[in-house]
Design a protein that fits this description.
Layout (H helix, E strand, L loop, with lengths): L9 E5 L6 E4 L2 E5 L12 E6 L2 E18 L2 E10 L2 E8 L2 H13 L11 E3 L8 H5 L1 H4 L6 H15 L5 H12 L2 H11 L12 E5 L8 H4 L5 E5 H9 L2 E3 L5 E3 L5 H8 L10 H13 L20
Parallel strand pairs: 1-4
Antiparallel strand pairs: 1-8, 2-3, 3-6, 4-5, 5-6, 5-7, 9-10, 11-12
Length: 306
Amino acid sequence: MKTPTIQNNIAFINLDTVKDVIAWDKQLTASVVSPADHLAIGDLVIAMQGLKAVALGQITDFFTVNITNRDRLTIERSIRINLQTLAEPVLLTLKQREVLAQLAQSSRLSFPKLKSVLPIPKDCVLYFDTLINGLDRWSEWDSDRGGKWHHMATLGIQERQDLNEQEKVNLLQALECRGALAEFVFQRDEPRIESDTDDMWLKVTRIVPWDACTDAMRTDPNNYMLMEGALAENFSLGLTSFFNNGRPILDPALDRQIFDAWTLSFIEYPKLNKEQQKYMAYHRKHVYKQWRTRLPKPLYDSTQQG
């Protein structure tokens, strides 16, 4: 097991109450309201639910976004975090809770209902030594877990003895959302998407996650939609979903100002067909708003989808 290197400081985030989050580059991005000049790329982020640590991550990037609202320019600073769920939640000690409450108050935040990232000054990190030193017991740290999952899924298809070569090719292309399947979905959906601009990055996106699908579902065009790239990433993470009429549903925690700017809110998506509606019912129930837990998804059962 590999523990992340703690370079300088740490920060806390509460997944139940954090606001203004968005998925970017397969990672969670969250705003930092209080001063964070002492934070650095590689620093540890501990994610809580209630008074328990439930996920770990490291800061992978900083960025600022200029937001103009009613002729007023505001600058939002955010960090990008590669969060990974712990094997089991860890309750914070009474002293750790007291320190966090004091730091939150000084940053005009409420504890434990943190609505943004709370940086921990270096002179306070020692209070969380027991939490940090116990990482080996809680999580196998893997900065490229998504890449390794994809590699194992690819290897699993290639080694299956129950598939002929063409079936393997079909599944590998479906895994990548490429090939004949993706071309069919693009040709089906692109003419039905209404937009005020031609400058769009459209991406073929799976509705029911791969691990919850049968082979037939993995290669079923109805289990795929064409959508704008940034929307697709937040859809796959669970920060957005769709109604049957094609209108997006947005998690209240989503950063609407950045999201609307990125996803070109003047795009209108087509109404879902009957089979897509069944797949989307699963997404709304088991994927939407589940980005806080990252728990394994149940297998799709068409008889239970409304």
